[in-house]
Amino acid sequence: MEVVTTIEQVRKQVKSWRQSGYSIGLVPTMGFLHEGHQSLMAAAKKDNQKVIVTIFVNPIQFGPSEDLASYPRDLERDKIACEKMGVDLIFCPSASEMYTAHFNSYVDVNGLTDALCGKKRPGHFKGVCTVVAKLFNITQPNRAYFGQKDAQQLAVIKRMVKDLNFDIDIIGCPIVRESDGLAKSSRNSYLSPNERIAAICLYQAIELANLMIKQGERSVAIIDAAMHSVIAKQPLAKIDYIEFVDQQTLKSVELLEQDSLCALAVFIGKTRLIDNFIYQHQHS
Ligand code: PAF
């Protein structure tokens, strides 16, 4: 496994792989890798002859009051995890390698980014799309892998790829959870022991919603109220949003009569966690 920090080094390697006819899978990450990332690497490994993992805490996707400085980092541990997963190349650039002086070009996907986390984190998806577009251009992959946990990110990137004609298949991979249901996330490392226990309430709300749906409930207002009351029981939790939206357009839905995404963001103490599930409509 090679670990490189410059765009030139990546381009050189990619060029030689392309000349040999190898397919390339890309797993873009911000590091502090966990089993969720490992599942993306495993999928990339299965589908492609070469796998590139990028590790870059992208400054332009963090708001001024967000956790850029404290975002967890452990490159040495990440290297070991990638090696174990059979990754071929890690690209871990500096911020100045990615954003040279006078950098001033951005990719902004409209519409989809006004909903859900986009409302709460202005500019976040512009930062994500810009860095992902750059990583696509640098690594020239056949396929790129993203977690379904960041459901809005996945929808926005799929839109960007379609709109800007990137010749790349975007593969969404299922959420990986802890044994008690908490979705794996690098930000879970911020949680104190008490907060970690409290954080289960996101999954409990999801479980309740799924049970209600199984029992035939289709009213978003009723399911949403039940989810709110599960989370409200947890004193350390503060709901940022719980929303049911159309999976493609991310527009709100009131009745579950089409495939829908239920996405939630909840503060546990100071840590903002996200989770979601997809309702698949059975046509009768
Ligand atoms: O999901 C993430 O870790 C980041 O948003 C991504 C896609 C690597 C872009 O910085």
What does this structure look like?
With 284 residues, this protein is α/β, with parallel strands linked by helices. Helices cover 38% and strands 20% of the residues. The protein folds into 2 domains: 2-173, HUPs (Rossmann fold), CATH 3.40.50; 186-278, Pantoate--beta-alanine Ligase, Chain: A,domain 2 (2-Layer Sandwich), CATH 3.30.1300. The strands form 2 sheets. The protein has a 6-stranded parallel β-sheet with strand order 1-4-3-2-5-6, sandwiched between helices. The chain has a 3-stranded antiparallel β-sheet with strand order 7-8-9. The longest helix has 16 residues, at 124-139. The radius of gyration is 19 Å and the shape is globular. The model has no long low-confidence stretch (mean pLDDT 97). The structure holds pantoate. Pantoate (PAF) binds at residues 28-30, 58, 61, 128, 131-132, 150, 153.
Radius of gyration, taken over Cα atoms and rounded to an integer in Å: 19 Å
How many domains, as an integer?
Answer: 2
Helical stretch tally: 10
Roughly how much helix do the residues carry, as a percent range?
25-40%
SSE arrangement, N to C: EHEHEHEHHHEHEHHHEEE
DSSP strand count: 9
Distance between the termini: 51 Å
Strand content: 15-25%
* Global geometry: globular
Q: How can the largest sheet be summarized?
A: 6 strands, parallel
> Which residue ranges are poorly predicted, with pLDDT under 50 across at least 5 consecutive positions?
none
What is the CATH architecture descriptor of the largest domain?
Answer: 3-Layer(aba) Sandwich
How does the helix and strand content classify structurally? alpha/beta
Give the strand order, joined by hyphens, for the main sheet.
1-4-3-2-5-6
CATH homologous superfamily classification of the largest domain? HUPs
